[in-house]
Amino acid sequence: MIDKIIMEKVTNIDSELNNLQFDIKPTSNVRMIAVKILNRYDRSDSYIDKLLSNAHKNEDLNPQDRALLTELVNGCIRWRNRLDWILTGFYHGDFQKCLNLVKNAMRIALYQMLFLNRIPIAAAIYESVEIVKIIQGEKSAGIVNGVLRNIARNLENIRYPERGEDDSYYYAVFYSFPRWMIKRWIDSYGDENTVKLMNYFNKRPYVPVRVNTLKANIEEVKEIFDKYNVGYKEFIYDINSLILESPRYDISQSEMFKRGLITIQDPSATLAAKLSGAKEGDLVYDLCAAPGGKSFVFAEMMKNKGKIIAMDKHASKLKFIKEGSERLGYNIIETLEADASKISLEQKADIVFVDAPCSGLGTIPKKVDIKWKREPEDIVMLSYLQKQIIENATKLVKIGGALVYSTCTIEPEENIEILKYTLEKFTNFELDNAAYYIDSELTEDGYYRTIPYLHNIDGAFGFRLIRKK
Q1: pLDDT tens across 450-461, in order?
Q2: Domains of the chain, CATH where assigned
Q3: Which residues are designated catalytic?
């Protein structure tokens, strides 16, 4: 049921539209760019964050326009199933056969009507109609205008699939997730917790910041945020991590970031890195290191004393590790182009860290399109790759050293099943209790796990093994 705020907005909608003055500024450049980004996303394999990043760099947009562009694009991807359900019901014909331009212009308007209360419905419709008129002509614009007006008049009458007849279908439409994914979560977490999970994943993402303790301390960083009125919350499981509530500027462009006092890293990833137990003088092999976030935590834990070999099979990604190391002031990190499933090194390491390639389904708020990019078979293939990497990693650990595995997913096949596989196959390794290294509230049966709706951070998993012989 649509809430009272939206009900008030649709009152006299026809009057608002008919009286809308055309002296408001011409069709918003932001919305036009948003449509173009969504069109490119539909016809390519590009990830939406890369498309947005390019637009932020190449388009002449002020901070407010950049924020609106991000909101519109991510919102339309996040809620695509619900938006398309509504549009299909009101469109005369086959909505899915519409030109991408037309579909995305309507999605942008509908997203604003449903989720952005500060934007008048009349203005949202007008902008999308004008975009279609400019690119596709009067006829298509007229169709878009009619469909969107009809939806605006009937917002309170929108109906979704009946809950109870097929819950996964209802959830897929209402919460906007693939049905196969929902069915998996119901099997793993139960119905009630699946709803909690979807609600969490549909939140707008927060900005996580970790303090580089080699250059600053948490109190100094908090003072700077206070000075510039940047709201933040402390993270109870890691004293050097902060969650920014509503940053008024791009943190990556701040002096604190440029000087290396802080870095952007989710607490779930920081905690996984701390599971390593890295200390001064250690030799650490980070097998799947790019873009380097966990290697940076190791360097900090080691007080920049020892040696870290940060590896990745894609040479182009190693530059991010080098750039980050320089910015943060670490000089113990070396990079190496290598395939983690095949690399052979003569010297055995104190710590071998496997930040495994995974489905990434614990990071959906930050990567809104990953739920549409993934298929069930991906989890099977990734699980096979993870086992290959683990098998090779066991050969690189010295006796008494540690093998640490982590993912940013919540899928059992990539997490607990990998732990079981490793312990059964490699009997010369034993589980080292994760509670020795991180808060015990985030551990279970000796391994590390975060559940988004319980811990309010990304979903992650990790375990630490010791080589006995």
Answers
A1: 999 999 999 999
A2: 4-157 (1.10.940.10), 167-201 (no CATH), 207-264 (3.30.70.1170), 267-467 (3.40.50.150)
A3: 408
